[in-house]
Design brief:
The structure is a homotetramer of 341-residue chains.
Chain A: E1 2-5, H1 11-22, E2 27-32, E3 37-42, H2 50-55, E4 59-63, E5 83-86, E6 92-95, E7 101-105, H3 112-125, E8 129-131, H4 149-162, E9 166-169, E10 184-187, H5 195-201, E11 208-211, H6 218-230, E12 236-240, H7 258-265, E13 270-272, H8 274-278, H9 284-293, E14 298-302, H10 320-337
Parallel strand pairs in A: 7-8, 7-14, 8-9, 9-10, 10-11, 11-12, 12-13
Antiparallel strand pairs in A: 1-3, 1-4, 2-3, 5-6
Chain lengths: 341, 341, 341, 341
């Protein structure tokens, strides 16, 4: 961290300020130029509060050279992290470090029959994981809020039937008690900075699929992962799912450049959700291919056997047939990119 | 709600689709043009899922004419809502319907002495409410997270000492048990779409200060209020606190136009937080004045007796002296606008 | 400007790099810490290309301490600039340095009668300048593009009739030949970074009303002003007119905080266009008041005697009666803020 | 176009309003419901001013069913447009309709030797077109503005030497006189809504490479193309080059979803500029691959033989060696996608 001291500051005052900083565990290097004094902070600056520094009357500018995250940082963990999950069929599925994870399924679980049938189709087409919402975050209190615990039961039935590990969203801490058999817990975009929830998930022994908030920076996403990892849970999967912009053609703008950015900054696997990002089923396959081309470790995609009758977000779901076609294309892309699928 | 049917759709299919819609409790008016059939849905459409409609193969476009919120809607509740809170001193403070509410205090509670002293200064300067964070949402898990329950105790001491009602942020449902004596519960911007939390607050008997998320629309803010109101708690105060943009001069862009927009759409009081919006203490007073000029029902502003030593966000806090000056200016503005302060 | 050198860089290489920089006219102060070398550049760094520096393999981060603009910078010109224009009636109108400039008129000039009548109403209500579009930038090539030279003639007729100085938009350099009698030349938001046009206007002897692009930063707006000033024309009026966001309630988001930001960074007058920013006539008066409360030096507002029949943008125009009311309110605000109106 | 009439409007008034609309060349279908009257406008509505309609007191909402562009619209021109350019070597290069166009070269032309050498490298690696800036749009008036006419001469020398068609940016209409031998004229992002320039290019017989403004919608980009096409020049290449967002990790956010969106709405070829979008050379190759995977018709990429010494934007240029590698990868992607390269 580098601090540019305000021109004209009294030397003595700067010394006092610097020794106060040193008490926070860093070493200070002074550079006293004719017109500008610069302080270089050496050591672990993750605990130093940038905002507080900026408020100090001696401080003109503050520049972080090191990133504020540690456990999620590739600098301190150069090898890719790979998440491994063993399904009910004893088979191991992998995401990251050369393995593509394909997570597919409907937006909401609607019935036991529906989810079991889709799960069978997904497995046949080559998906590695089954997704499906039981607790649904909905903008309106009057919209369908998901089947809740019943939905979870139906998902578990599909898991038993097909062996596919299941991924589903947790909306509140108290729901953890019914998530015992869930394989991967999803944190939705709107909860990415629900810090109480993140802390709790740090004590959990399951992989967490952490979705980027639709107006959160790369750094904020990694700080959210850091919250989980700081609690002891290192198995975090990052998920880009679109950011807000001024254009309404797609629901959000899928930030494909977040993939190489996150892969460079962090060792955690990065997947992409083309369905929620665009909100348009016809666009999901091309965005899924672009994601793999850009280096993603997998995708999470909405598939519904009858998108027109979907209880939520049908517009963004592709059919099982379209998913099968997509898997065919992704296999070719995986081969070019040297990834296992 | 108006539905433009896809050109070329079979008449019979459209009829079947329309009667399915009617089963959801609305009446359908047909308009069959030469090239375009249009369906008009009459009745209460708040429960109809716009996304699901758009997914239907017969549907080209959907247009909401009515807003998707009901209890927060000025249409069904033309008079301004006024929130009244009685302080420990027996005095009633008001926000809305002609009364300006001024909420002031430090970002975080740091000690009993600090908060009691600031509270006395605030009261003397004319503030109606004391704010202070005990549970703090921080981007980094390594930053100061607030004093928690101790912080709450110090706030209550200041409340007892000065009579000022207190406003403080709730981050998780389970904290409700220690919020018994809090006068107004704040929901932070990052939790604006934490729907589990909102639902729970719907069953609560205290006023809720609901901050707009930094990337949420006017409609989404009103839908978040609707979540609380749908549970039976009508005492919601809306708070604009800046939205994200491409410019980093200020932390966020204070959306002053949200004030008349929210006042037109809803009967709920609207206040503004110039401190978090801009992140710059020198800018807070001019933004506070602009807010009142634009029709706001109050402000929530950060005041710290020693901004440079603030444990968080010192850069955005004004001094008690600056706050006293600001109150002087606001009184003149209130008079012009015909508001009580 | 401060350069953090990449850790591990060879000392000799850094010396060579530094002396290359010194050839660009700055002095370099070295700070060699144990883990990080920092270079401080002293002198005029406005000509140093930050992007090129960042590309250098020795460079880790670059921080500008000084702003990249000089003539527009308040640092080198602490007193407020005031723009004075003498009308055809011999009266002097002022914008800036304590004087509020009120510019009003229709979006487009539609006929001689229309513009002369509105001009009379505007003058009577107390406006200082008449605005009206002759050359109109329109999103669609099939929309009304303005009356062109005829429109200019009608504007000049209104100028002669009322004495009000006129403000109108220039869209291309070659139009300058017919702008001889125009008092203030407007550069539209879409042309804010039309650098060829800006350079040409630097050689012009008329005040330039420079509108902020709807996705341009504070710094970019000041750099656009710098283009004009670098050519020798110091009479630039900055105009905030809304920025793009994710919300479509208003056409753009009026960035009220740009007013104090621009006033702090620059000595140039700053006015606000509430009509184009919001696109909603009912919202324009409250935004105009907020602008003055936040320290603006004036407003430019659309007024049309028959908004419903306006050939463009009627939705955002207020009536002459509403304008008269607004002037009444602004006079009270001007008094509180100690401004002349 | 569908107009929802304001509830309670007098029938007679609506009739008068409708017949006024019919005079603009459309037919009106009435739908009078119990609570809502809806007008359906049939025919060519591209000339109808949506903004003016919205201002009318009888109008509640307006919904465009048809897009406001005609010549750029795939609806009226279902087959892909292919741009063909014959180089000085007699070879034909193609962009669109199954042919990938690869445009490569430095940000600025710096010397005859530099551009001729790069051109040779580009041709050898398989590029189809040479890019290079002679007139440079720069944020600061004090930055290098390009070599101007000399730069053009050097480009033409490289064209003669290698046979590669050249692509270079035009910043002002008067420069057209020296663009005689330029093969493709580029319109920069900042000039995308410089309507005077677009109109002039409509009368030009050369292909236009039209870059999307960094805060412009899909529709606005197509309307800018429509400006050119309305003048008679149908050879427009659309170029996505990143949009502004709240995150500063990359310079802009490359909107990969714009590719399928533009291809669906329009028949014009769509290419992508990964260099300007991200501003990071290490990210350009993965973004180029993502673009082709998403269906782009080509890329325009910055290559510099010595990025560290580049006079502008070195940070975003890749080396000729990296470009050769990229071409190898793109050939595999082209094959999978069934495109010619």
């Amino acid at each position: 961290m580098i601090i540019a001291v305000r021109p004209g500051a009294a030397k003595e005052e700067v010394r006092v300020f610097a020794s106060a900083l040193e008490k926070q565990g860093v070493k200070i290097h002074f550079s006293e130029g004719a017109s500008q004094t610069v302080l270089g902070l050496v050591g672990d600056t993750t605990g130093i509060d940038e905002e507080a520094l900026k408020a100090h009357h001696l401080v003109e500018k503050v520049i972080r050279v090191q990133e504020p995250y540690k456990r999620a940082n590739r600098l301190f963990h150069p090898e890719d992290t790979r998440i491994e999950v063993t399904g009910a069929d004893g088979e191991v599925r992998r995401i990251g470090s050369g393995s593509l994870g394909i997570i597919a399924g409907p937006c909401s679980v609607e019935s036991r029959e529906q989810i079991v049938n889709i799960a069978r189709d997904m497995k046949k087409a080559g998906a590695g994981f089954l997704r499906g919402g039981a607790f649904k975050p909905r903008t309106s209190p009057y919209s369908f809020q998901g089947l809740g615990v019943n939905g979870l039961d139906f998902l578990l039935a599909a898991r038993k039937e097909t062996g596919l590990p299941i991924v589903t969203e947790l909306m509140a801490i108290h729901q953890l008690e019914v998530f015992d058999e869930v394989d991967i817990i999803q944190v939705g975009a709107r909860n990415m900075q629900n810090f109480s929830l993140l802390k709790e998930l740090g004590h959990c022994r399951k992989p967490i699929l952490l979705k980027r908030g639709y107006a959160n920076t790369i750094t904020e996403l990694l700080m959210a992962a850091e919250y989980i990892m700081a609690g002891g849970n290192d198995r975090v999967i990052l998920c880009e799912r679109g950011i807000r912009s001024f254009d309404s053609y797609t629901r959000n703008v899928l930030d494909i450049s977040a993939i190489p950015a996150l892969k460079k900054q962090s060792h955690l696997p990065v997947i992409v959700d083309p369905s929620h990002a665009t909100g348009l089923s016809w666009m999901a396959p091309s965005m899924a291919k672009a994601a793999i081309a850009a280096g993603a470790d997998g995708i999470i995609v909405e598939v519904h056997n009858n998108p027109e009758k979907a209880l939520c977000d049908g517009e963004q779901s592709i059919t099982p047939a379209a998913f099968t076609d997509l898997m065919g294309a992704l296999r070719k892309y995986a081969e070019i990119e040297g990834k296992r699928l």
